[in-house]
Design goal:
UPF0012_CS, C-N_Hydrolase_sf, 263 residues, C-N_Hydrolase, single chain, Carbon-nitrogen family hydrolase
C-alpha cells in the first residue's frame, strides 16, 4: 500500500483560496498512491484562533468540494486533514474529512481533545465524542488529530474498534517537536499499528511549526520522516506487518482491564 503525507506550508501571507488550490494540485500529483494524508486545519492554521470562526465552512463548503474533486481526479483515498467545520447550530468543530477515490465523503471525525488549557481551541471549538474508523481495501484507519496524540486511551479504543493504521493530522509547534516524534512512535509500539503522522510546515500566528511528519511501522521503527519545510513523504507499506507483529509479540492479549485502586 503506497501512502503519501503532504506536509503543507501554512503561512499567514497565503490566502485560503490560493492554498486550497495549491493543495488540491499537490493531491492530484499523488496519483499512484493508495492513501494521501493532509495536516490539521491547513486551510486556516491551527494557531490562527481568530480565523476559526471567519474561516469555518460547512461539510459541503469550498474546501470539502475541492478535496473531493482532487481525490476523484487522483483516484486516491484522501484523508484531507481537518477543517474548521461550521455546523447549523453555529458551533465550530475541528473536523477531519476522509474521501473515497470516487470523491465521496465517507467519514468525518470531530477532534475529541481540544488544545489550549481553557484558551484557544479549547473554548472556541466544540468537542467530538465519537471514536471513528474507516475500512479501506488494505487496512482499517483509526482517526485522531494532533493533541489527541497525548491520550493513549483513544488509540486503544481505535484498536479495539479494528484499527490497524492510525492517522494523525496535526499543526504541531516546533518547540515541542521532540514530543511529536516520541509520541508517534509510542502510539505505534503500544498498539502494534502503523502510524501516519502528518504535520504542517512554516510559521503562522507567530508559531513556527514542527514539520517532521513521519511514518512509523508496528514495531515502532520510523519508515520515513520529513524535514522542517514543505515536503511530500511517500512510502510503500507492507500491511500484513500489523498482523505479523501482533502474532509474534502478542502483547495486546495480556491487557488487564478494570484494575481497582487499593484504598
Amino acid at each position: 500500500m503506497r501512502v503519501s503525507l503532504i506536509q503543507t506550508d501554512v503561512g499567514d501571507a497565503e490566502p485560503t483560496a490560493a492554498r486550497r488550490s495549491r493543495v488540491a494540485r499537490l493531491v492530484r500529483e499523488q496519483r499512484g498512491s493508495d492513501l494521501v494524508v493532509l495536516p490539521e486545519l491547513w486551510h486556516v492554521g491551527a494557531f490562527a484562533y481568530e480565523s476559526f470562526a471567519t474561516g469555518a465552512e460547512a461539510l459541503d463548503g469550498p474546501t470539502a468540494e475541492a478535496m473531493a474533486e482532487a481525490a476523484r481526479d487522483a483516484r486516491v483515498w484522501l484523508h484531507a486533514g481537518s477543517i474548521a467545520e461550521l455546523t447549523p447550530s453555529g458551533t465550530v468543530f475541528n473536523t477531519s474529512l476522509v474521501f473515497s477515490p470516487e470523491g465521496e465523503l465517507v467519514r468525518t471525525y470531530r477532534k475529541i481533545h481540544r488544545f489550549g488549557f481553557d484558551q484557544g481551541e479549547a473554548v472556541l471549538m466544540g468537542a467530538g465524542t465519537e471514536v471513528v474508523t474507516v475500512p479501506l481495501p488494505d487496512t482499517t484507519l483509526g482517526l485522531a488529530t494532533c493533541y489527541d496524540l497525548r491520550f493513549p486511551e483513544l488509540f486503544r479504543a481505535l484498536v479495539d474498534a479494528g484499527a490497524q493504521t492510525l492517522v494523525i493530522p496535526a499543526g504541531w509547534p516546533e518547540r515541542r517537536r521532540g514530543h511529536w516524534t516520541l509520541l508517534a512512535r509510542a502510539r505505534a509500539v503500544e498498539n502494534q499499528s502503523y502510524v501516519l503522522a502528518c504535520g504542517t510546515a512554516g510559521t503562522h500566528a507567530n508559531v513556527p511549526q514542527a514539520g517532521h511528519s513521519l511514518i512509523v511501522d508496528p514495531w515502532g521503527e520510523t519508515v520515513a520522516e520529513a524535514g522542517a519545510g514543505e515536503e511530500i513523504l511517500t512510502a510503500d507499506l507492507d500491511m500484513t506487518k500489523v498482523a505479523k507483529t501482533r502474532e509474534v509479540f502478542p502483547a495486546l492479549k495480556d491487557r488487564v482491564l478494570g484494575v481497582e485502586r487499593d484504598g
